[in-house]
């Protein structure tokens, strides 16, 4: 079976791609490679792996010939990145992914899986949200994901299985490491400063899931019978990993045996949601293998031994800004006959 993973060199994609290869699948990785190809460079000699540097907005649809499954992860990721250029976020995260889905159906792909987000639920106090709950997206990123869901789900048919995966906030080690995600960022802050930066007031709720577990969930949906997953939305996470941010900071400190020391920043966060993951557990028997404590320990140890390091590339918005600035400088300074 051949699987196309858009965004396959990204934070989740580079982990998912390896897990697919380990299970014997052929993988076509389509990625713009904004963060470099080193996240998948070790896979280049694998005969079951193919890297295509391209964009979901304009790739040649003929690449879909012979593809059995599309896992659509390509996007401008997270809320701050989405606000950097809202028009571009809609263009990629909504229009680009609906293009992938429609072309997939046209070219005979059997299954399409959309990577969405629990942030579509927005700010919801005193309730636990499931897949039937009303949505309230507050950011461009969340709105673009919901728009993609609403346009793509109706494409489901007997011959084209469509599934939406609303993922919890992800954490854990990846070849394309990110420290702009809550648990990873807290762990880095603790490693560097012996204190954790907490967005005020710390009472906001978030669900979390390890990057290996959300990758496992994608594979479980792909391997499930079509009648179980076709036209379905699944929240991806676990009930016991719904955390308020301040108590989560204490979990992070305890995981590495440090006394809690907090540094407050920012204004109160208007995104807060507590999510039920019963549907995926009951319907597909999905249970995460890892928890926040284990994720913190593996990341802290990797920082300590130098396996992973912090750089501008590990903070998505800063890297995008750097690329935009560099592009602007090149355009302004290049001469007509310049090799640039």
Helices and strands in order:
Layout: E1 2-6, H1 13-22, E2 26-31, E3 49-53, E4 69-72, H2 79-84, H3 86-106, E5 111-117, E6 123-129, H4 140-152, E7 161-167, E8 169-171, H5 182-193, E9 196-199, E10 205-210, H6 211-223, H7 226-229, E11 232-236, E12 242-244, H8 245-255, E13 262-265, E14 272-275, H9 278-284, H10 292-305, H11 316-333
Entry keywords:
7-stranded parallel sheet; 11 helices; alpha/beta; globular; 340 residues; Rossmann fold; 3-stranded mixed sheet
Short description:
The protein is 38% helix and 21% strand. The chain has helices spanning 13-22, 79-84, 86-106, 140-152, 182-193, 211-223, 226-229, 245-255, 278-284, 292-305, 316-333, and strands spanning 2-6, 26-31, 49-53, 69-72, 111-117, 123-129, 161-167, 169-171, 196-199, 205-210, 232-236, 242-244, 262-265, 272-275. The strands form four sheets. A seven-stranded parallel beta sheet has the order 3-2-1-4-5-7-11, with helices on both faces. Strands 8-10-12 form a three-stranded mixed beta sheet. A two-stranded parallel sheet has the order 6-14.
What features would you describe in this structure?
- The chain has 340 residues and is α/β, with parallel strands linked by helices.
- It has one domain (2-178, 208-250, 273-291): NAD(P)-binding Rossmann-like Domain (Rossmann fold, 3-Layer(aba) Sandwich), CATH 3.40.50.
- Helix content is 38%, strand content 21%.
- Strands 3-2-1-4-5-7-11 form a seven-stranded parallel sheet, with helices on both faces. It has a three-stranded mixed sheet with strand order 8-10-12.
- α1 (13-22) links the parallel β1 and β2 (26-31).
- α8 (245-255) crosses α10 (292-305).
- The model has no long low-confidence stretch (mean pLDDT 94).
């Amino acid at each position: 079976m051949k699987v196309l993973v858009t965004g396959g060199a990204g934070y989740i994609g580079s982990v998912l791609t390896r897990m697919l290869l380990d299970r014997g699948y052929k993988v076509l990785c389509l990625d713009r490679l904004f963060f470099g190809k080193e996240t998948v460079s070790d896979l280049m000699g694998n005969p079951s792996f193919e890297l295509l540097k391209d964009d979901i907005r304009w790739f040649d649809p003929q690449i879909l010939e012979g593809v059995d499954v599309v896992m659509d992860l390509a996007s401008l990721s997270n809320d701050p990145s989405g606000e950097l250029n809202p028009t571009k976020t809609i263009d990629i995260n909504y229009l680009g992914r609906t293009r992938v889905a429609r072309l997939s159906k046209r070219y005979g792909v059997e299954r399409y899986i959309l990577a969405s987000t629990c942030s579509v639920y927005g700010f919801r106090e005193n309730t636990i949200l499931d897949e039937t709950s009303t949505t309230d997206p507050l950011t461009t990123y969340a709105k673009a994901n919901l728009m993609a869901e609403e346009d793509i789900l109706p494409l489901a048919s007997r011959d084209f299985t469509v599934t939406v995966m609303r993922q919890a906030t992800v954490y854990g080690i990846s070849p394309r490491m990110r420290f702009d995600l809550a648990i990873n960022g807290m762990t880095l802050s603790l490693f560097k400063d012996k204190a954790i930066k907490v967005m005020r007031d710390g009472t906001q709720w978030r669900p979390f899931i390890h990057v290996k577990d959300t990758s496992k969930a994608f594979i479980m949906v792909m391997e499930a019978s079509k009648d179980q997953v076709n036209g379905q939305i699944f929240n991806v996470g676990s009930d016991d990993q719904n955390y308020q941010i301040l108590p989560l900071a204490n979990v992070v400190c305890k995981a590495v045996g440090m006394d809690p020391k907090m540094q407050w920043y920012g204004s109160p966060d208007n995104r807060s949601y507590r999510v039920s993951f019963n549907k995926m557990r009951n319907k597909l028997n999905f249970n995460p293998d890892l928890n926040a404590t284990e994720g913190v320990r593996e990341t802290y140890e990797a920082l300590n031994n130098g396996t992973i390091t912090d750089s501008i590339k590990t903070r998505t918005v800063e890297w995008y800004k750097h690329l935009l600035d560099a592009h602007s400088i090149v355009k302004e300074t290049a001469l007509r006959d310049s090799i640039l």
